[in-house]
Design goal:
single chain; 217 residues; mainly beta; 5-stranded antiparallel sheet; 2 helices; 52% strand
Amino acid sequence: MIRGLKLLSPSLALLFCCLSAALGANFTASLDRSTIAMGETATLSLTFEGGSPRNVPTPNVPGLQFADTGNSSSFNFVNGQMSSVATVTFSISPEHAGDYWIPAMEAEIGGQQIRTPPLKLTVTRPGAPSGAQINSGSQIAFMRFNLPDKKVYPGEMITGQLQIFFRDDVQNYQGLQLTGMPADGFTVGKMSKGGTERTQIGNRVYTVIPVSIALTA
């Protein structure tokens, strides 16, 4: 009896080129998490049991990016019979918050068509990081917004200061655009970006982009 023989290959078909007998055929799809926040990733696993699939379905869902992260297989010999399990994994990166459905997928194993049920993935908007998380330097990016400490009268204009922080391992942030500026009770006016600065937070260095925003009460 041989158990747990692990193989890795860039092609799932090659994993089973020597497989001549199988115990039952099955195809399942599963997510490691059903809910993630923007900026996080989930893992989709496609598991094939009992034989080599003729096709490996490739998921395609608008708003989700799928990246093939590899495959693995194992073979078990028990009482002269051989069974096999192969798994293909995909990393899922969401483009927007919302509820997504990964549709049913179908694969043929040993002449048998097997279909998986659809899977739901919920993507939430990220919450504001805590002060401890910011001060530890663990945040990839975050923003701070400050207003002058004064009373404001209707029609009066004040200037708010927005600071956008990017950790030193972030690249290509030059094309940054603000997609929303909620300001209940204020009219948002001209925005002016200042020169970038560098500052250390925790054990990491951040690039700081200051933006002045005119607000009229």
